[in-house]
Amino acid sequence: MNWANGIQNPAAIGDSPPGTSLSLAVKTSTIASIIGLALVIFLAGCALPYSESGVRAVYARTTQDGRTNEVLVVVAHYYGWGAPLTPEGPQYITSNCKMHYYFSNQHLKGRSLGFLVRPGDNTWEVFAPVEGTNFWVRVEGPHATSKPSTTNLFITVFTPRRSLYQQSIETRDVPDVRFLHFAEGNRVLAYKSENDEFVYDVLERCLKTKSAR
Predict the structure, then answer these.
(1) Which pLDDT does position 39 carry in this prediction?
(2) Helix or strand run (H / E) with residue 16
(3) Span 198-206, average pLDDT
(4) Do residue 98 and residue 124 come from a single domain?
(5) What is the pLDDT at residue 169?
(6) Domain count, the chain
(7) Which of 47, 127, 128, 200 has the smallest CB count inside 10 Å?
(8) Which whole-number Å values give the CA distances from 163 to 75, 114, 120, 188, in the listed order?
(9) How many CB atoms lie within 10 A of CB 91?
């Protein structure tokens, strides 16, 4: 039996009328063409779910001799609905992004840091290992779900096992990674923009601000 509904293979019947094989081949080709055309029309007029992931950034803790002993990997997962066939090519209808964070060292491989996951994507974020400790620090700008007027800078200090604490610092200007600098083995965050200037000590949780010029 072939895939067509109950049509037997003429070669297995024995006495087949002349031209039967050619006739069945033409019919099969026609059916396949119709199905293919229907599938194209269906895809062109409908939305299908999509999901894709990719590495966004990799951060490392290195020793004084340049060896890497810890790695933090940021993976972006994009998902939503899209139209696969349009005159302009594949188009996204809705798109969402969720960040995932993974930690590895000599003893752990790809541990998921679920406590770092946010409900909404942020505008930007950077990570740095705090020298002389097993701490890491994340500095991030306003979240995508924040109000347009929000200008807070968010700081999270954590270990590979848990979040230690979070700090929100209100700024006059919209936070930008260009104004951020790490100092003293990443123990101190220095931030300076046109209307904001402060330093933050990660270990002492101490914020020192300077008056706007």
Answers:
(1) 52
(2) none
(3) 94
(4) no
(5) 92
(6) 3
(7) 47
(8) 19, 10, 18, 18
(9) 12
Q: Does 57 have pLDDT greater than 80?
A: yes
Contact partners, residue 153, CB within 8 Å, separation at least 6: 139, 140, 141, 168, 169, 170, 171, 175, 191
127 and 96 assigned to the same domain: no
Could you tell me if 26 and 51 lie in one domain? Answer: no
Q: What is the pLDDT of residue 17?
A: 52
The pLDDT tens digits of the residues spanning 104-154 come to 998 889 999 999 997 666 679 999 999 999 999 999 988 655 555 567 899
* Residue bearing the bigger pLDDT, 2 or 16: 16
Q: Which two tokens stand for residue 80?
A: 């939503």
CB 160 within 8 Å of CB 92: no
Residue 87: CB atoms within 10 Å:
6
Q: What DSSP letter does each residue of 165-212 carry, written as one string? A: EEEEEE-SSPP-GGGEEEETTTTEEEEE-SS-EEEEETTTTEEEE---
Main-chain phi, psi angles of 28, to 5 degrees = -60, -45
Instruction: Give the whole-angstrom CA distance, residue 67 versus residue 176.
Output: 31
